Amino acid sequence: MPAYWPIRNFDDAARREFVIEKLLLLRSQLAKLVPRKSEDTLLLCTWNIRDFDSDKFGYGLRLPESFHYIAEILNAFDLIAVQEVNRDLQPLEKLISFIGPNYDYILTDTTEGTGGNGERLAYVYDRRKVRFRKIAGEVVLPSKRGQSAPTQFSRTPFVTAWQAGWFKFNLCSVHIYYGADTGPKLKRRIAEIEALAKFFKERQAKEPGDYFLLGDFNIVDLAHPTMEALTKHGFQLPQGIKGDQIKRSGSNMAQDKFYDQIVLRPSDKRLEIGQSGVLNFRESIFTDEDFKIYKSHIPVDKLKNKTGAKALAEYRKWLTWQMSDHYPLWVQLKVDFTTAYLESLKPGRQMLAIEENKPA
């Protein structure tokens, strides 16, 4: 359970009451959209939490309630890949303390250079539900004999090994280069995605297992070459995320882009995919109606000479540095394989397995 006691320290009683009401709305939204945690499922999430939390763009640091809202969202999931954590770890440590005592995190060093933007990739996880299998590394593309060294990723992907219940799996969190919508920079984005997918296709051939890629791929839509770069190497979208059965919304603020993805190359046939979705937190918090509450917190230079629709647009931009310009994307995995295991112990099944594994 998240820590709510810091709300008592709000000096303004009206503000405290407002934040409590917003938290109740957010909790109600989460309860309707996200399945309850259970022993036989894993709730896996990815979220690019914009520029957490440096103020290098001049929109101000996050307000106390923003930490509570983010903590409430993260607490709804068992394992979360987080992108855009910054060099200073104090905000992350504060956030973890708000999420609750059972949560921990692991993360990369900062990625240097212009493309790296000083970012870290992190995994936040509930220790009661998922176990880190002590394998972690950043993906560096190998050189091949007789060829020049390949161009490396702008932000190094972060691969880790986990276990939840019966299910052992590998995750790779990414924040792919964006560049531009057309031309050489788009080609570079596609090349990064394809290089990553090909790397893990080859890795799976050497080290069998289930591999998930998740994070901010900057994918335009599900029919775009950015998506094809993933699927051509055998990575699949869980059915609910793919949107064949339900209409999928994008993960950007306008919900018309599909930047964030969770894809997998399945190996364990016992794994079942459950529900999935995108959490539009603005249905509960930082709504347009809340502009009047937060207008005084927006830097004066950002609102200068802006009224009406222009002022509202600036508020919508400002709130992306309070929460994010991305919405969380999540999927439910059914990881209790007890029934399948017991079935496999039946004498007839054992004999069938022996027959199937006989050499030709």
Structural commentary:
- The protein is of the alpha+beta class.
- The chain has one domain: Deoxyribonuclease I, Chain A.
- 32% of the residues lie in helices and 22% in strands.
- The chain has helices at 13-33, 64-74, 90-99, 183-206, 225-231, 239-242, 291-294, 300-303, 308-319, 338-344, 347-356, and strands at residues 41-52, 79-85, 103-107, 120-126, 131-138, 158-164, 167-175, 210-216, 260-265, 272-278, 329-334.
- Strands 3-4-2-1-11-10 form a six-stranded mixed beta sheet. Strands 5-6-7-8-9 form a five-stranded mixed beta sheet, with helices on one face.
- Helix 1 (13-33) packs parallel to helix 2 (64-74) and helix 2 packs across helix 3 (90-99).
Please give the count of helices: 11
Mean pLDDT: 91
Task: Give the spatial strand order of the biggest sheet.
Answer: 3-4-2-1-11-10
Structural class: alpha+beta
Oligomer: single chain
CATH superfamily: Endonuclease/exonuclease/phosphatase
What proportion of the residues is helical, as a percent range?
25-40%
Name of the CATH class: Alpha Beta
Strand content: 15-25%
Q: Compute the separation of the termini in Å.
A: 55 Å
> How does CATH name the architecture?
4-Layer Sandwich
Low-confidence stretches: none
Q: How many separate structural domains?
A: 1
The coarse silhouette is globular
Report the order of strands and helices: HEHEHEEEEEHEHHEEHHHEHH
Fold-level CATH name:
Deoxyribonuclease I, Chain A
DSSP, total strands: 11
Give the biggest beta sheet: 6 strands, mixed
